[in-house]
Amino acid sequence: MEHFLEVKNLRVSFTGDIQKSIAVDDVSYYAEPGEVVCFVGESGSGKSVTQLAALQLLPVPPAVIEGGEVWLEGVNIMQYKADSPQMRAVRGGEVGMIFQEPMTSLNPVKTIGVQIMESVILHLKCSREKARERALELLGQVGIPDAAARLNDFPYQFSGGMRQRIMIAIALAASPKVIVADEPTTALDVTTQAQILDLLTSLAAKNNTALILITHNLGIVARYAQRIYVMYAGKIVEEGPAEKIFGHTAHPYTKGLLQAVPRLDDQNRRLVPIDGIGPSPGKRLTGCQFRNRCRYSSEKCCEEQALREIGGGQRSACIWSYEELKEQEKEGAEDERKETEEFGENVLEVKDLRVTYPLRKGILNRKAGELTIIDGISFSIRKGETLGLVGESGCGKTTTAKAILKLLEGTSGRVLLNGRDILPLREKEFRSQRKNIQMIFQDPFSSLDPRKPVEELVGEPLLIHKLVKDRAEYDRRVDELFCLVGLEPSMKNRVAHEFSGGQRQRVGIARALAAAPDIIICDEPVSALDVSIQAQIINLLEDLQQRLKLTFLFIAHDLSVVKHISHRVAVMYLGNIVEISDSEELYAKARHPYTKALLNAVPIPDPAIEQERERRMLPGEVPSVMKRPAGCCFCDRCELSDERCRKEKPELVWDGKKHGTACFQIT
C-alpha cells in the first residue's frame, strides 16, 4: 500500500575529527492526509534530525545522509539535490516547517508582511498585490487581530504566542500537503500552547494536511496525536495508534517516559525517572540501545532488536511481550508516596508589594506618570514549605521574584525575610542578607560562567560570604555540595559545556545551596529539560527539602509540575494574585475563572481522559500593563464579568484563611 508521505530506511551520520556518529539509524515512518503524527523521545534521540534529513536541511558536512528514501505522493524527493529548484519547491511549497523558536527563525529587520509574502511569491508565482491579499488572509486564519494594520510590524512587536502564529502563517503560505512542527510550543505558557495547537490541528484537518509534530510533552501527544513514533538513540523503538501506545505500552522506554511525567490527576505520587543517560552517538551499544538503562534487561538484550508486530498497528523493538512486562511490573511494584510534612514559622512574608516603572517623555526625559507592574500582592511562605507561583507569561511572576531578591526596586509594600523588612535596605545593608535568599535560574547554561570550572561557581558564595576558614574547609564543603546534588566531586574541574542539561541544573542547585539559604527562589528550573531529567530534578528538590528543611518559591507555567512539588499555590494575573490555596484544594476545587481556564488548558497524558474532558479555550492573551482594566484585571477575558467587574477591583476573600479568591462572581 502506497502512503501519502513515506520515509524508508533513513540513515544519517555526522563526521567528526576522530570518529563517525550515527544520529538516525534505519528509520521508517509514514503519514496520511489530515493525520496528526507525533514523534516523542528525549533530547538527542534523533527526532528533529530525522525530519531535517528528510527535507535535506542538515549542513553537509558534517551531516551525511547514508541511505534512505522519502516518498511524497509517489515521488522519491531524495533524488533531488539539496539546492536544486525541485527541492526548493518541496520545502515551503509541498512541505511547510514550523521551528521551535520563532524569534530566531523570523528575520528581525523585515516586517512580517514581507516575510509571509516572500513565501507566497516564491511558491505560488503571483504578483505582490495577490501576495499581500494572501498574507492578510493567512494572518486572519491564524488569529492575528487587525491584520491589515499589523502587516507592517516587525517580529519584536509581537508576543511569543503571536510570533508562533506568524510562523504557522508562513508554513501555510503555499498550502502545503505536509506540515512539520518541531517543538512549536516549548517556550509558551499553557493557554497559549493550547491555542496554538488547537489552531494548528484544526487548520491541518480543514486543509487535509498531514501534520508531523515533534514534542517531548506527552500530554500534548495524548490530546492531539492519532499515531505515535517513540525514538531512542536514533531508532524507533515503538510505534502505533495513540490509544495503544498509552493504554497498552509495550516498550520499557515508553513506560519510563510515562512514569516520569507529572500529571494533574496524580495522587501525591513520587515521579520515577529513567536512570542514567542515553548512549553517545559515537559509542553505540551492541543490541538494544536502551538495555543499560532498562530495569528489565537480560543477556538477550545484547542481540539486535527489530520492530515486531503486537497487533492493532502497534510495533515494539523489545524481546519482552506486553504480558511479560506487566508480570515483571507486578513483582517489583512499589507505590511510593510523598510524606506529609509539617511547617515552621514564616520565612518570607510579602505584604502589599507594588512595583512600578516611571513613564518619561520629551528630550529632557521628564517623568510623565508610572506603569504598574505588580499591583499590591501579599503572600507568605513557611519554613520547609513550597509555594508555587503560576500564571501566563507577562503576569508578573519573575518580576515578583526580582523584587524579592532586590534585583529591581519595589515601589512600596513590605518584604519580610525572617521578620526583617528588606525592601528599604540599601545594597550595602542588604549584602549581609543576600546569603539567606538564593535563586535557581531557568536556563543553567546562560547562568553559569562558561570560562570558569564549576568548582569556582559552586564555591563562590562560600568565599563572598566568608563561610569557610581555609582552603581545606572550602574543598570539603564544595565536595559535599556536589555529592548533595548527585554529582561526582571528580567532575568539579570541568566547565559548563562539558555537562548535560540536567547536570548543569544540578550545578545551579549546588550553587544556590552553598550559602545555606533560608529560602530558594526557583524560576522555571525544569522548563527546558526532558521529562526524565525533569523528574530527576523535581525528586532532587523534594529530597533536599526534606533533608535540609528548605523553603522554596517555585515559579512555573507548567501546572502539572507545580501541583506535584508545591504545598500551596498562588495564581497571578496581570500583577495581581487572583487565587491562593493549598495545592490539593486548589486543583480539586478551583474557584476563580482564570484558574479554571489554566487547569482546563493542561493536557493529561491519557487519550481516553482527553477525549472525555470538556474543552473551553481561554480567548486572547494577557493584556499589556499599559492597558490594564480599571476594575478586575481579568474582566476583558472572563465570560462571567459584569458591569461591577469592569469598574471595581475585587480583593482576596478568604474561606477559613486557607483559600483566597479575588472574584465578585464567587458565592
UniProtKB/TrEMBL annotation:
Source organism, top-level taxon: Bacteria
GO cellular component: plasma membrane
Assigned protein family: Belongs to the ABC transporter superfamily.
Protein name: Peptide/nickel transport system ATP-binding protein
GO biological process entries: peptide transport
PROSITE patterns to which the protein is assigned, alphabetical: ABC_TRANSPORTER_1, ABC_TRANSPORTER_2
Pfam families documented for this protein: ABC_tran, oligo_HPY
Mode of membrane association: Peripheral membrane protein
Entry keywords, A to Z: ATP-binding, Cell membrane, Membrane, Nucleotide-binding, Transport
Organism: Murimonas intestini
Chief place where the protein resides: membrane
Domain ABC transporter intervals: 5-258, 348-599
GO molecular function, one term: ATP binding
Subcellular location: Cell membrane
InterPro entries from the UniProt entry: AAA+_ATPase, ABC_Ni/Peptide_Import, ABC_transporter-like_ATP-bd, ABC_transporter-like_CS, Oligopep_ABC_C, P-loop_NTPase
